[in-house]
Amino acid sequence: MTIRIGILGDFNPEFPAHTTIDPSLQHAGRALGVEVESQWLATPSLVGAEGERLMAGYHGLWAAPASPYKSLEGMLHGIEFARRRDWPFVGT
Amino acid sequence: MGLADADTAENGSDSKHIVITPVLCAVPNRNPGDPKLVGPIAGIRMEPGTTLHSIYGGAEAVEEHFCNYEVNAEYLSRFESAGLRLAAWGPAGELKAFELPTHRFFLAMLFQPQRARQQPHPVVVAFVKAAAAFAQRPTAARANP
Known about the structure:
- By secondary structure, chain A is α/β, with parallel strands linked by helices.
- Chain A is built from four helices and four strands; from the N terminus they run βααβαβαβ.
- By secondary structure, chain B is of the alpha+beta class.
- Chain B has one domain: Class I glutamine amidotransferase (GATase) domain (Rossmann fold, 3-Layer(aba) Sandwich), CATH 3.40.50.
- Chain B has helices at about 50-55, 75-80, 120-135, 140-145, and strands at about 5-10, 20, 35-45, 60-65, 70, 85-90, 95-100, 105-110.
């Protein structure tokens, strides 16, 4: 089974803290012998019930750095979703 | 914490409760344009009894940073009262990470394990492990936790 990780944040290919997330997940997956797939979820897409449906499709949520976010509301909603629904979460 | 107007200094609001403030002890000899905390910072200690402490096996860590803001120390006890576990400390006694002890896996930190030269990083391994365990739970429980 592929482990699906949703990365909450607004991807910028010039930020090393962004471009290193998927490789670090792949390293961890190899160490554990599991297949990992990650997808960036832009902060405006995390708002409201639609955002919750989107995030519920992942097995873990990683809040990426680089504020200000396009949607602070979306980022806060993402973190709140993980907290209230007890989803595996890491924020870096 | 029950602070409706809690805010970060970055937003420049007139909130009375600025819980995130600029970094106090900046890294010396930074390049122009660098944030206050940049590059590897040594002497990060994990609080005994936390998930982070067990992830690191109790060892002190060197971790990559890239940030200008940190938790306002005046609010630490309020964060704790609200249920956050203070989990890691920097060399000047500043908070580096917290976790939610009632949660299956909820860690937040100022440093960036994804940027560590040594991979896999134990925090990322622990996170993927938690996600893999979560993926195994019955689908019904996923829909109605």
